[in-house]
Structures are given as C-alpha cells and as structure tokens.
Amino acid sequence: MKVYLETMGCQMNRLDSELVTVSLRAAGHEMTDDRCDADVVLYNTCSVRRHAEEKVYSRLGGDSRRKAHHRPRLILGVLGCMAQREGAELANRFGLLDIVCGPGQLARLPELISAAADGSRVVALDPDPIEARRGAKATEGAASADDSDFDALDLARDFQDGHAGAQAYVRVMKGCDNFCTYCIVPLVRGPERSRRPERIAQEVRRLVDAGVSEVTLIGQTVNRYRWSDGSRTFAFSDLLADVSEIAGLRRLRFVTSHPLDFTNDILHVMAERANICEYIHLPPQSGSDAILRRMNRKYTRSQYDELIDRAREIVPGVVLAGDFIVGFPGEAEADHEASADLIRRSGFKNSFVFKYSPRPGTAAARTMLDDVPDEVKRRRNNELLAVQHEVGLAHCRSYIATTVEVLVEGPSVRAGKQGFEPTPQRTQLAGRTRGSHIVHFLGPERLAGQYVNVHITDATALSLQGDREAGQE
Ligand code: SAH
Ligand code: SF4
Ligand code: F3S
What we know:
473 residues; Rossmann fold; binds S-adenosyl-L-homocysteine; pyruvate-formate lyase- activating enzyme; binds FE3-S4 cluster; alpha/beta; 37% helix; 6-stranded parallel sheet; binds iron/sulfur cluster
C-alpha cells in the first residue's frame, strides 16, 4: 500500500518517523509525499502545545470527509504523543479513524495496518505512565539490568536506509521523569529509561560504517542518561567518552540538556574530545526564580548563570542556545524582564520562545490559573525575540573574518534568489558549523555531505555568510 506519513514535534518524533518508515518499507509498503494519492494516511503527532494538536484535528477533519465521500478504504492513523494523550477518545471523536498508536507501540505499526486493512479499529497505547512509574520503582535495580525491548524500534534500524546522508540521530534514552509543571512529555512518553551503552555504541558504529559522519544523541533530558547493572554505573559523560572514540565519527552532538544535571564531567569530556561539538542546547525556560520554582525546574537563576560561566570556562568557544516560555501562570512584568536579562547575559546563539499553553493533566493546568492574557503573551514573545535578535546578531558577527568548518547539507532555500541562475556547478549551499550555525556560501551541489572550510564575511542574527576556501573539494 502507499503510505503518507507526516511528522510534527521534536527530534524524538523525527527519529521515530524515520524508523517507522524503514519498518513499513520492510513490510512491503511504499511511501508517498502525496496525501491524496495514499492508501494509508498517518500523522506522527506532538502534544506539547495546543496549536500542534489543532493542526492534526484540522487534517483529520479533511481526511475524514474524503474517506466518507470518495475513499471508503482509506486507512487513517494517529501515532505518537497525541495518540497516547487522547487514546480511545480520539477514535470516538473521529469515527473514521482506524489506528491510534502510542509512541512506545510503533514497532507494531505494520501489524496494526494489516489489522486495519481487515476492517478492525486498533488502539495500541503504552501503559498508563503513572502506573508504569510505580511498577519501575518496585523492581528498581532489575529494571535497568534487564534487556527489555523498549528500544525495539531502534534495534530494528536498517543501516542502509534508516538515515539521511551524513547525519543521523541516535536515541540514548526514552521518557522523562522531571515533571516540569507545564509539560505533557512525562505523561505521554512515559518513565525515563536509558538504553544499554553497548547498544548505543553499536548503533553509532554501524551508522558510521554506512557513511554517517555526524551523530546527534537524543533524549528528552539527554544529560540524565544513566545506566547501571549493579557492578558498574555509566553516566552521560562516560557514554560521550565511549562513543567519541568510534573511528570515523567526525562530529558528535547531543540534545536536549537539562541545566540541573549538567555536571563538570560532561564539560570536561566535551573539552577533551575533538569530535564532540562545542554546542549545548540548554533551555532556561525563565530567568525568574519565582517562575522557575513554579515550573518545578529545580534550579535557580544564579545556578543557571553559574553553569553558563562554567561551560564557557571549561569548553572554549562553546555555543549556547535556549528555550523560553512566556506568560506562564503568575508571570509578572518583573519576571519577564528577568528572562530578557538572562538572554542579554547569556550570549545565546538562538532561543526558541513559546507562549504558555496549558496542557490537560499537567500540574500547572490542574492547579494554576492561565492568567496572562494572550495579547500580553504575544507582546512578551516578541520582546524576548527582539532581545535575542540583538544578542544573536552580536554572536554571529563575532565570526566575521574567521574560518569555520562546515558540514554541507545541500542547496540552500535561498538558491535562485541571489540574482543569478543556479547551476549544479555553482549554487547557494547551506551547511552547519560545529556550533550549529547555519552557513551560506557558493559552491557545487556535489559538496553535499562533505566538510569544507568557509571564510566568514557577513552575518545575520540567524546565519553566517562566507566564501569557500580555495583549493578544497
Ligand atoms: N525535553 C526538553 C524540552 C521538550 S519540549 C527540555 O526539557 O528542555 C520543548 C520546549 O517546548 C520546552 O523547552 C519548552 O520551552 C516548550 N514547552 C513545553 N511545554 C510547553 C507548554 N505547555 N507551553 C508552551 N511551551 C511549552
Ligand atoms: Fe518536559 Fe521538563 Fe521533561 Fe523537558 S525536562 S521533557 S520540559 S518535563
Ligand atoms: Fe511533542 Fe512528544 Fe516531542 S509531545 S515535543 S513530539 S516528545
């Protein structure tokens, strides 16, 4: 059958979709980019903000009408975080929905599609997240020593097919136990579990053998990675050290880090290993202690500032990026100013800024009033972005007249808008530095997937512009 799969959300979902695609192809299905031509339409969904969910409702509305009027055999499925959050209710709301599949059940998707083709409605959900955590506590110790198949989807990875060119994601952990009060992730992705270090290293080794040179280790709080089997304990710094030794791995990255668990051990490994990129995505969420406390972030503003200073001291040239939530319940103008001040002090390369969106079932939605009006959220959002724009511009301009190593990703979306007709021999290319800056420069298309040195001549708040050094391939 022809399958259309659309992905919303974070890098976890993108990796899940990549792995699901491989398993669907292995089961004999064909992927298509054309939703109207597909026999199976799947959405891998995100629940982190209401807006992300509304997009899926509107897509499902359109698909349901098409199914009702023209395509009675069309199979419709919702996968991932929103499927897990809403469960059977989603199927009740959309009567023509065939598959609801939680993020931990994706390895079963080919089987669910077969069942749907036979006329069944299938709802495959992960165990209740709160119950699952109780269960894990009862068997602590054994829990991390067993070889459970919570990473079945990752283990089935196809190393010829399961990644895009030179870059690949590798999951090191699943779930999250932090329970930031605004966040749905612990309720949809279940308890935090770390994968066996040998499995991670083997996956990276195979990807490198298949031509990958840049690997990003991913986890909701990747730096909380911890594996223990009684005789030895493996922390995130140990994992980084081990994986960085894999021959042929030119760049090693990781996202997303929680400020609370960012130990000096991690910073030292970053400084020592040449292939670990000096880039840390370290979301502060707010610059105000009062708000951080109500968010249950478990660190203070001064601890965050101190961590940034430490990172800059131990890892020379480290590039930092942040996330902020504006309009969290009770956020006063002074709290908002504290976030702006944090950005000014931080030197962040970039920040993502989100308007607070109450998520059903979270502590904030249950116990705090969403009392900041939308127009105030919008204004604060714009204000933080404006401050970040200044900071990002100064940061990017500091690279002018230096030479940076760029992994070329391919022709830039700007190609063709440069006042000349691009050719395969000369087009506007885009790539990334070790610090994750986007770089634009002219070159031949065949450089995609390769590393080149680019001399930086200009910068905006979001990207660098330069010339390829002469004499390079
Ligand atoms: N695991 C990552 C973040 C996952 S969600 C971490 O802990 O940093 C990605 C970002 O979405 C968060 O950093 C936060 O800024 C934002 N976010 C999460 N829940 C939100 C909500 N209810 N409303 C608005 N933004 C939210
Ligand atoms: Fe959500 Fe907090 Fe976990 Fe990040 S650390 S996924 S924001 S609960
Ligand atoms: Fe969204 Fe789920 Fe990721 S809620 S941010 S897709 S873990």
